[in-house]
């Protein structure tokens, strides 16, 4: 039941389990994150990602495509994906970066979307989940680790009770 919290302390998982048993996990999330984001189209999501990228990663390579992807189904393994494709076109090397976010995040609070976008943007510079990767994530979003935990709580709630934000 707590598959999204596997790497966390057993005492913390016990607290989450208590919230679930008392049917208060949803209340906790709604109190902390009451409203949904407004980036529900691929075009608005692209604009949102570009704004973050231009603010924090001006010198990073351009992003050619950003979209909500209905094919990302296994939320346990990926909330979003980043792809980097390079090909030779004529005498030049062309590179394309794409970010795809699972479609289930069309209806979540903005901090959750921001955490996922920050994660995928960080992969543009740092391919692996290293110390430098997480340092970049917290540079862009100082509350990155708390948001990741709260997003994991939301995914736990969603698995148990269905969508919280409709």
List the main descriptive attributes of the protein structure presented here.
166 residues, alpha+beta, three-stranded mixed sheet, 3 strands
Descriptive report:
With 166 residues, this protein is α+β, with helices and mostly antiparallel strands. It contains 6 helices and 3 strands. The protein has helices at residues 10-21, 25-32, 42-56, 110-125, 131-140, 144-161; strands at 65-69, 80-89, 92-102. The protein has a 3-stranded mixed beta sheet with strand order 1-3-2. Strand 2 and strand 3 form a beta hairpin. It is elongated, with a radius of gyration of 17 Å. The chain starts with 9 loop residues before the first helix and ends in a 5-residue tail after the last helix.
Instruction: Tell me the number of helical segments per DSSP (H or I, 4 or more residues long).
Output: 6
What integer is the average pLDDT?
Answer: 89
Could you say which structural class the secondary elements and strand pairing correspond to? alpha+beta
Unreliably modeled segments = none
Radius of gyration: 17 Å
Beta-strand percentage range: 15-25%
What's the total count of β strands? 3
Gap between N and C termini, in Å? 22 Å
């Amino acid at each position: 039941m707590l598959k999204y919290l596997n790497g966390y302390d057993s005492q913390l998982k016990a607290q989450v389990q208590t919230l679930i048993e008392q049917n208060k996990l949803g209340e906790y999330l709604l109190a902390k994150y009451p409203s949904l984001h407004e980036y529900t189209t691929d075009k608005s999501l692209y604009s949102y990602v570009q704004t973050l990228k231009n603010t924090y990663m001006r010198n990073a390579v351009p992003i050619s495509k950003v979209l909500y992807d209905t094919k990302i189904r296994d939320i346990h393994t990926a909330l979003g994906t980043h792809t980097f494709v390079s090909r030779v076109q004529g005498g030049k090397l062309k590179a394309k970066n794409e970010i795809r976010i699972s479609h289930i995040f069309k209806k979540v609070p903005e901090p959750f979307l921001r955490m996922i976008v920050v994660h995928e943007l960080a992969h543009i510079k740092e391919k692996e989940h290293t110390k430098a990767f997480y340092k970049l994530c917290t540079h862009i979003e100082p509350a990155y680790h708390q948001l990741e935990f709260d997003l994991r709580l939301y995914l736990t709630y969603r698995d148990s009770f269905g969508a919280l934000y409709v």
